[in-house]
Amino acid sequence: MSFRFSFASTFVLLSAALACGQVAAQADHSWTSIGAVGSVTPAEQGSVEQSINWARVPFGLASGSATLRYNVTAVDGLFVPPPALSSFAFGMRFIDNGASGRVQLRLRSYDRSTGALTTIEALDSNDVAPSSSAQSTFKCIAHDFDFSQKTYFVEAVLSKTALAGRAQLGATWITPTTCIVSP
The domain 31-177 is classified under which CATH number: 3.20.20.80, 3.30.465.10, 2.60.120.260, 3.20.20.70? Predict the structure, then answer.
């Protein structure tokens, strides 16, 4: 059995292979962090457990909250979106089983010259149907990251108001994407 390729079919195959490679390369340009690595203030140490990949308000705590911070580092994909992309997906993997648990994330910037602290976007587990299983959510954002002038971080607030509540963060990410930013 022999195969014969024309110049046109070889060009099509090569173009498809390059396009697949470009998509795979774009996926490598995401900023990601697991929940367990967030920084917490010493005063809030008893209000959070960090294990393997999760950060959570302890199961045995009737109520409480903790604020964790995740430093956003300058990965290639955050500087300038590739030409075909117009936005980023800011997302989280979490558990919030109902009214007594909540996970809130804020993508923030700190301007090193003025000291201004700005919230770029926020996610709230209360905007998603509660579940005892892990689930993910994201928002599309349009933002020009400027690591020469600003420092970026994700601030997570985990809180619960009853013993049965679950507030857990498994991961957070910022990924170049083609999702549509709502006005």
Answer: 2.60.120.260
